[in-house]
Amino acid sequence: MWCRRFRHGSRGRLPKPIFLGATPPISIFTPNPPSNLEPILLETAELEAFKLVDFEGLSQEEAAKRMGVSRGTVWRLVQRARKKTAQALSEGRAIHIIAGTFGRISNQP
């Protein structure tokens, strides 16, 4: 049985920093005409992974090396970005790009 006597704080290990190429030049995309629906929040790490894999055509392993994370993390980020983007486009919702907690702007990890 696990005893919490020696463990204080949150469970699990701390997330590694994710290296981002640059901050996006635009932080809000709104449909025309604007809708009253709640906007979709897209993190900068999700956008970076989405851009590297789908726009620049890198493999998930190459994108993972560039971002300084595992291939599984890139896969998860790309899947979340694709789902959020598809939801925003199909429902006519705005997309707000927000800074993630663990993103660092850098060209190299």
Order of helices and strands: EEEHHHEE
Helix content: 25-40%
Supply the CATH class of the domain at 38-105.
Mainly Alpha
Number of helices: 3
Protein architecture, described:
It is a single chain. By secondary structure, the protein is α/β, with parallel strands linked by helices. The protein has a domain of 68 residues: Orthogonal Bundle (Arc Repressor Mutant, subunit A), CATH 1.10.10. It has 3 helices and 5 strands; from the N terminus they run E-E-E-H-H-H-E-E. Strands 2-4-3 form a 3-stranded mixed β-sheet. A two-stranded parallel sheet has the order 1-5. Helix 1 packs across helix 2.
Question: What is the element layout, followed by pairings?
Answer:
Layout lengths: L17 E3 L7 E2 L10 E4 H12 L4 H8 L3 H21 L3 E4 L4 E3 L4
Parallel strand pairs: 1-5, 3-4
Antiparallel strand pairs: 2-4
Key features of this structure:
109 residues, alpha/beta, Arc Repressor Mutant, subunit A, 3-stranded mixed β-sheet, two-stranded parallel ribbon, 3 helices, 5 strands, globular
Offer a quick outline of the entry.
With 109 residues, this protein is an alpha/beta fold. Helix content is 38%, strand content 15%. It has a three-stranded mixed sheet with strand order 2-4-3.
